[in-house]
Amino acid sequence: MRSRRLIGVGGRAPLYRGAVAGIKGCGASSARHTRIATDRQDARYDGRGFPRDGTPRKPGGALMLASGTARIAPCIVCLALGLALGAAATRPAAARPDDPRAEGRSAGPSRAERAVDEARELAAQALETWDKDRDARRAWKLIDRAVRKAPEHARTRLDRAMLLVRMLPALGSERRRRQALERIDEDLRAVERLAPRTILAGVARDMRRELSGRTLIPRQGAVQCSSAEGIEAFEQAEALFNAGRLEESLEHYRRAAQACPDDAPILTAWADAHYALGQLDRAEELFVRSLLRDPWQRATRRYLMDVYLRRGDLEAAFDQAVHAVIADPTYEAGWEALRMICPHVGREYRRVHGERPDIEQSGDRATTVTLPAGALGSGDESAGETGDWMVFALLLAGADEPPDDAPAPLFPEVSRIRGILETICDDEPAGDGGKGSSRHGPFWSMICRAVAAGYAPEAAYMHLLDRRLAAEYPRYRDQHADRLRTYVLELLVPPRPGPGSQ
After folding, report:
1. Interacting residues of 301 by C-beta distance below 8 A, sequence separation 6+
2. Distance between alpha carbon 70 and the CA centroid of its chain, in Å?
3. What is the structure's pLDDT at 440?
4. Is 325 within 8 Å of 217 (Cβ atoms)?
5. Percent of the chain beyond pLDDT 90?
6. What average pLDDT does the segment 89-116 reach?
7. Could you give the C-alpha distances from 234 to 44, 136, 258, 268, 304, in angstroms and in order?
8. Contact 465, 473 (CB under 8 A)
9. Sequential DSSP letters for 162-199
10. What is the mean pLDDT of residues 472-478?
11. 126, 139 Cβ separation under 8 angstroms
12. Spatial separation of the C-alpha atoms in residues 327 and 219, rounded to whole Å
């Protein structure tokens, strides 16, 4: 079985402790497109939608949707609000995506802006040093200098985390690897602090989860083709892409796809190259072909979302964002993309992400249930990893064990949880029109709205995922995709009430 590849490493190499997979990032040079993470399957981002501080622009000027790709695109998508929604704008070629002077101001850059410029140049040098020379010591020194120049710049902090992830297998000592992992965690937490409620923050949360080995939903991102010719062509294409030779990479991607016609990740990579060249029609065609082979590729859904954003088709982009989070409810970058699109397609964002309190049950069989941290929890992420739902369900039922002859439901875990949720929500106050707080907090108010509307299974899968629920979710998703989509559209991102509504 092949280990997951490291982009730009020249072949496949095992990741440190097998913890990191499917993380994707970008470099800082406007002259070349650089991927700096483990493979193309997860967190794409670029300068689009991220001003200097890493936060999205606020409505009122231009909507900069941070959909994020692994390439430094030569343009930044600008979607103007009002009737002009969807109009694309391109930065001057001489300006890097996060160059503050590209905002059109005539005044010279401030000291802080110059520091960011210098940090981005140092980050680009670090990436190039690693890509070309495999000099981990020098690359680390350069990226550390970049962070010292601009410690409060979210993209630079994420660049360092992603570069260190790539370098982990090449670090010679256990001490050095531990140091790198500590630095990565520090940077990812800084990104969440510096750029909250952005795709950048979602990328950081996804990376932290994967580094901790807590990925719950199996994802299809590694190339599985058995053709040696196809693999060779694909690796040649990737090397050319990483070197910025995009046009040359296309023929190699074509040969790889010809040798491996059913390999969805190869089609996604080929589409990605066309997207980087601005060839949106061809990129869309190939992304769709990839999804026909596997419709639940979370990253491919978001990449196709990027295509529609570039065209200004917000409704189509919104639909892909919805499918991305249904593909994997733990996909924080996908949730952040959905959050940012919602206001601009006339929808509210009602998903609550926060602490989940312990629920105490009174009576002879009183117990405190530690809710499964799952993939969306916060705080102590080691608590409740496998969940305590089964024990709780048995206690509520007044039984020590399930009867031997009990019929086994098709989805046993969610069947148990349905009763638990109904018990928790049974005496909940009505709240204030659906937005109010539950006695257990806003998270449970969201859950209880779902239970009242008949979506207890969907709420459990989308918000309370633990390892046992995750084991049955893919089958449920395949059989009930329409219900999951309706749940998201009606309860998590409902239409915004009109001016005359109560």
Report:
1. 291, 320, 321, 323, 324, 327, 334
2. 12
3. 60
4. no
5. 44
6. 53
7. 19, 25, 11, 12, 21
8. yes
9. HHHHHHGGG--SHHHHHHHHHHHHHHHHHHHHHSTTSH
10. 94
11. yes
12. 9
Angle value at C-alpha 378, between 375 and 380, nearest 5 degrees: 100
Poorest-pLDDT segment among 25-29, 226-230, 246-250, 298-302: 25-29
Whole-angstrom distance, CA of residue 60 vs CA of residue 13: 47
- In contact, 421 and 459? CB cutoff 8 Å: yes
* Distance separating alpha carbons of residues 14 and 30, to the nearest angstrom: 30
pLDDT the model gives residue 429:
57
Q: How far apart are CA 418 and CA 12, in angstroms?
A: 43
CA 101 to CA 85: how far, in whole Å? 24
Structure tokens at 36: 């700096």
Domains and CATH numbers, the chain: 16-211 (no CATH), 228-345 (1.25.40.10), 359-492 (no CATH)
* C-alpha span between 502 and 287 (Å, rounded): 42
| Ranges 22-36, 260-274, 377-391, 478-492: which has the least confidence | 22-36
Compute how many other C-beta atoms are within 10 angstroms of the C-beta atom of residue 134: 13
Nearest one of 31, 65, 23, 33 to 48, comparing CA atoms: 65
Q: Which of 369, 355, 480 is nearest to 416 (CA)?
A: 369
Q: Residue count of the chain, please give it.
A: 502
User: Using CA atoms, how far apart are residues 160 and 458, in angstroms rounded to an integer?
Assistant: 37
